[in-house]
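Board notes (copied after class):
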Amino acid sequence: MPHVFEGLATVTVMARYAGKPQAELTTFECPVRLETAGTDRTRVELARYLEGPKEANVLRVILPEGRMVQGPIVDGYNAPLGGWLLIDVEPGDLEFAPAAAEPGSQTDNPEQELAALDLPQAVQSTTLKLLQQIALAHTADDLFRASDRAEGIVLGLETVEALDAVRIGALYEVFDSAAGARRQEHEQ
């Protein structure tokens, strides 16, 4: 099997079943090794036991440089000293995907960042509207109100656990970057 990646990654184990609330647990800096196992499968080798919700059936691995692979778990072995999981993927899933912004960085294209977050359509639409309000703020007060509104929406999503912690953090960063860029425009 061709070796694709070996190192630390963000791994999210999920339980997704129709009619039940989604459960997930994310492990940051999890040592993994990824290998392709045919055109539509990826083998994820683990160096330690991977915590996750009971009856987990989906795995997502996000690599430091922005590649992501996600799919249903079809086989595996999870033991205290490591193991492996085999997941179904779409052909080409290990191609580079746009990475979320690093904390403190600013991007010229928030839409690209949002696409990388794979947000539900309603959240994506609302996020784009809030970004537009920030971009169109004419005064410092307008910018303050638009930024507060955006932060309130993210806080609401976080409170009801509508998104995982990685995507919540990335949304905060997207809005902070947009507001910071607009503040700089106002100062010029």
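Comment from the instructor: The chain is about 35% helix and 30% strand. Residues 156 and 162 are 9 Å apart (CA to CA).
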